[in-house]
Amino acid sequence: TTGVRTATALTGAQSGFSAGWNSSYMGACYDSTRDLYYVYSGQAATGQTLYQIDPANSYACTSVSTSGTPTETTVSGINSRMVYLAAYDVIIMQPAWNSGLWAMKRS
Fold first, then answer.
1. Which candidate, 61, 75, 78, places its Cα nearest to that of 12?
2. Average pLDDT of 72-78?
3. What are phi and psi of 53, to 5 degrees?
């Protein structure tokens, strides 16, 4: 049905995310190649962890292993400065309004 929202509880080990998460400041993007959502806050208090949410697996929420993290953090979070580019299979984000771009290649 068009225009209807359904609240779905997250499952998995990371379903509560980390202390310090504020949903109004995080970034999220959709990976159309894998049918996954990625969530990242950019806040130092969250451990700068990238999470993936799998709608095909009861919305299981798990952390994604990455090498290296952006050196920039922000008090107010990433504020939606995050996008998935299917043509390159990469997540692009800008941790702070005055920082450079970071690319996370999915493998």
1. 61
2. 66
3. -120, 125
Q: For 24-38, write each residue's pLDDT tens digit.
A: 677 889 999 999 999
The pLDDT, as a whole number, for residue 19 is: 46
**Cα gap 77→43, rounded to integer Å:** 5
Round to whole Å and give the CA distance between 4 and 63: 29
Q: Distance (Å, rounded) from C-alpha 99 to C-alpha 81?
A: 11
Kindly state the tokens that stand for 87: 């043509």
Token digits of residue 39:
């969530």
Q: Are 43 and 74 in contact (CB under 8 A)?
A: yes
Is the separation of the CB atoms in 106 and 90 below 8 Å?
yes
The neighbouring-strand residues paired with 61 are 53
Q: Which CA distances in Å does 31 have to 1, 27, 73?
A: 23, 13, 24
Non-local CB neighbours of 45 within 8 Å, separated by 6+ positions: 18, 19, 20
